Amino acid sequence: MTAEPGTRQFRVGLLGHGIGPSLTPAMHVREAERLGLGYEYEILDLIDEPDVDLGVQLERLEAAGFDATNVTHPFKQDVLAHVDEASDEVRRIGAANLVLLAGGRRVAHNTDYAGFRAGLERFLGDRPRGTVLQVGAGGAGLATACALLDLGFAEVVVHDRSEPAAQRLVERFADGSGRLRSSEGDLDGRLPRVEGVVHVTPVGMREHPGVALDVSLLPDDAWLAEVVYRPLETELVRQARARGLATLDGGAMAVGQAVESIRLITGLEPDAARMHEHFDHLVAGGDAG
């Protein structure tokens, strides 16, 4: 779509692996049009590049006039070595999913935290907040673990196929309360003893099929929250629903982080309800343009 003369223009990118099916670009563009903006959003899938230099990638975006780039798996932590400034959320969490490039400075932000927390809080309602198990300790997992602690869970157990990664996450947020701990590699032993599970790994994406845990081991009244949204019903979500478990799909976080990103990139206030409508239409097969 060609913007009218005088319309504010923005050019935004998305850096990551296996991100071709992402709906983030279309969500941004649709909402930007409703806000009266000219908005280009380009996917930069680096999955076939073996040795990615994020500094070089950011320099290319700056030289091409990009205003910002979203950052996703597996670069949310590594990108911090290539920015000039980090928001309070990024300094606390240790990961970023947005870098603003305008003004000659690279400023890192994390909108995963706000997007995930808002969606999970609505989903939980008055459910007990006892023990929750998080599967995944990567860049997105840092944000979700931080949100789980802030939502007041009595115990947050973190599991990752790399036990050192899980332990690093625990050490990062340790506050002396003992509420955050590692599974110590015992995923199956933990599953029967939790009230809910948050899945935060790439497993289940179209490019990374499969499931990361055995839902048959969960209690009958457990719930499951997913961050993967392409497909919206991952195999993990499908299995949980087949068992009758309450589920939150990855759409809530996808929309929530996009709302916050547009706000930071443009300085305008996007309509969150309208963005959920954009997302639902896109998932249903609407034109991605």
Q: What this model shows, in words?
A:
The protein is an alpha/beta fold. It has two domains: 9-110 and 252-283, Rossmann fold, CATH 3.40.50.10860; 113-249, Rossmann fold (3-Layer(aba) Sandwich). The chain contains ten helices and twelve strands. The protein has helices at 24-34, 54-63, 88-93, 112-124, 139-150, 163-173, 187-190, 235-242, 251-266, 272-283; strands at 9-16, 38-45, 68-71, 85-86, 98-100, 107-109, 131-135, 155-159, 180-182, 196-199, 223-226, 246-248. The strands form two sheets. It has a six-stranded mixed beta sheet with strand order 2-1-3-5-6-4. A six-stranded parallel beta sheet has the order 9-8-7-10-11-12, with helices on both faces. The radius of gyration is 19 Å and the shape is globular. The mean pLDDT is 94.
Strand content: 15-25%
**Which strand order spans the largest sheet, edge to edge or round the barrel?**
2-1-3-5-6-4
How many domains, in number, for the residues?
2
Query: What is the percent of helical residues?
Result: 25-40%
Taking all residues together, what is the mean pLDDT? 94
Rough shape?
globular
Which segments are poorly predicted (pLDDT under 50) over 5 or more consecutive residues? none
The profile of the biggest β sheet is:
6 strands, mixed
Structural class: alpha/beta
* Helical run tally: 10
Number of strands: 12
Question: CATH homologous superfamily of the largest domain?
Answer: NAD(P)-binding Rossmann-like Domain
Tell me the distance between the termini. 9 Å
What is the element string, with H for helices and E for strands?
EHEHEEHEEHEHEHEHEEHEHH
Which CATH class of the largest domain applies here? Alpha Beta
The second-level CATH architecture of the largest domain is 3-Layer(aba) Sandwich
